[in-house]
């Protein structure tokens, strides 16, 4: 593309499905999408939270109850989005959970749960949304991975594995779409820990304030990022401004991974 796109309206006319839409990054992204002219369906396993988010956002936002680990639920969510919005141009695979523990401390059930929510759901989302995205003529998938997919920690075995998987799956999907010339791009956003609900109770015995202080001290930026920091990156990758960006990682970590 050549020329410039107005800051407001860079997603004008586009229709988006955002998973985990009632959470921090999901809610912030939905709000930014609406501000930039998109129609949005927010999906969440917590149906009441999805409805509250949609009501708060207004603008005809659609709320969907959606277990992202369930194959049939993905078929239903995509169909409901297409019916409500008239099509699908953007998929944001944002739903995710975290857990702490090294290999010895991680129960197999917890391992499977994290991999199912954080990685399997991205596979299912890409698989079942791709036909509708291809039909739009200029579809975009943005997968929310993590800087934990770049930098390993000894006590994050499941989360590290899942987010590294999302990062590489993103590249595979991007190359497959390019080979098939279906007009769909696939990119990933890799945030560091952000000031969202995922921090609640992450380290037992530590208050949220203590945790934010410790995380800020680790960051070259001297602060913990906000959900909007990731949301702005997602807006860019979903927009036509990123028409030549495919299979990439957009790291949003205040410089942490550069150390």
From TrEMBL:
Enumerate the SUPFAM superfamilies for this protein.
Answer: NAD(P)-binding Rossmann-fold domains (SSF51735)
Classification via NCBIfam families? PRK07231.1
Q: Keywords on this record?
A: Oxidoreductase
Which protein is depicted?
NAD(P)-dependent dehydrogenase (Short-subunit alcohol dehydrogenase family)
Pfam families with a match to the protein in the record: adh_short_C2
Task: Report the sequence similarity comment from the record.
Answer: Belongs to the short-chain dehydrogenases/reductases (SDR) family.
Q: Which domain of life is it from?
A: Bacteria
* InterPro entries for this protein: NAD(P)-bd_dom_sf (IPR036291), Sc_DH/Rdtase_CS (IPR020904), SDR_fam (IPR002347)
MF annotations from Gene Ontology: oxidoreductase activity, acting on the CH-OH group of donors, NAD or NADP as acceptor
């Amino acid at each position: 593309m050549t020329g410039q796109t107005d800051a407001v309206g860079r997603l004008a006319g586009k229709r988006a499905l955002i998973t985990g839409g009632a959470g921090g990054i999901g809610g912030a992204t939905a709000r930014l999408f609406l501000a930039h002219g998109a129609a949005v369906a927010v999906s969440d396993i917590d149906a009441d939270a999805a409805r509250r988010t949609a009501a708060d956002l207004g603008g005809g936002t659609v709320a969907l109850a959606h277990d992202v680990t369930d194959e049939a639920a993905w078929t239903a969510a995509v169909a409901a989005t297409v019916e409500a919005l008239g099509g699908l141009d953007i998929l944001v695979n944002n739903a995710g959970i975290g857990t702490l523990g090294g290999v010895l401390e991680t129960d197999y059930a917890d391992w499977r749960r994290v991999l199912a929510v954080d990685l399997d759901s991205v596979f299912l989302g890409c698989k079942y949304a791709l036909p509708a995205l291809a039909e739009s003529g200029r579809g975009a998938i943005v997968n929310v991975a993590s800087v934990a997919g770049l930098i390993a920690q000894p006590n994050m075995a499941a989360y590290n594995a899942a987010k590294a998987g999302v990062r590489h799956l993103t590249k595979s999907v991007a190359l497959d779409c390019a080979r098939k010339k279906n007009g769909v791009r696939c990119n990933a956003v890799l945030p560091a820990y952000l000031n969202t609900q995922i921090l609640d109770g992450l380290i037992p015995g530590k208050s949220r304030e203590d945790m934010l202080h410790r995380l800020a001290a680790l960051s070259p930026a001297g602060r913990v990022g906000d959900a909007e920091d990731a949301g702005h990156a997602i807006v860019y990758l979903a927009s036509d401004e990123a028409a030549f960006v495919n299979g990439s990682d957009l790291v949003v970590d205040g410089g942490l991974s550069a150390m």
